[in-house]
Amino acid sequence: DMGGLGPMTARNEAKAQALYGEIDRGDFWSGHAAEKDRSRMNVTFRTPSSELDAIFLAEADASGLMGLKGHRSVGGLRASIYNACEPRSVATLVEFMRSFEAARG
User: 19, 25 in Cβ contact below 8 A?
Assistant: First the structure.
């Protein structure tokens, strides 16, 4: 119903690019993986400190953005943006990240 593999691939790449674009935009956010190893489905990143990571998680959860806690062995933050994740959800997360950075950066 969504056009098949080609359009879904393009949709997923656009979602990942939007999120990685925000992570790479400045010095506040940092990605875990090297650019060549980045996942299009699980985007891992951090704020400048573990304390800010915890604040980000609490504020994101209060805003309805849930499930962003990173893996227990890696820490940080993780956004899972699988096929079912709508592009508008990624856009909402990016907007939240920008406002969080503006308030805390």
Answer: no
DSSP single-letter state for residue 63: T
pTM (2 d.p.): 0.93
- Segment 37-75, tens digit of pLDDT: 999 999 999 999 999 999 999 999 999 999 999 998 889
**Burial group, residue 74, by CB count within 10 angstroms (0-12, 13-18, 19+):** exposed
Label the pairing between strands 42-46 and 30-31: antiparallel
Distance of CA 12 to the CA centre of its chain: 13
CB 57 within 8 A of CB 97: no
Mind listing the pLDDT tens digit for each residue in 2-27?
778 898 999 999 999 999 999 999 99
Q: How many angstroms from the chain centroid is the CA of residue 99?
A: 14
Calpha distance 101→105 (Å, rounded): 5
Tokens 């674009």 sit on residue: 21
Q: Which residues contact 46 (CB under 8 A, 6 or more apart)?
A: 29, 30, 32, 53, 70, 75, 76, 77
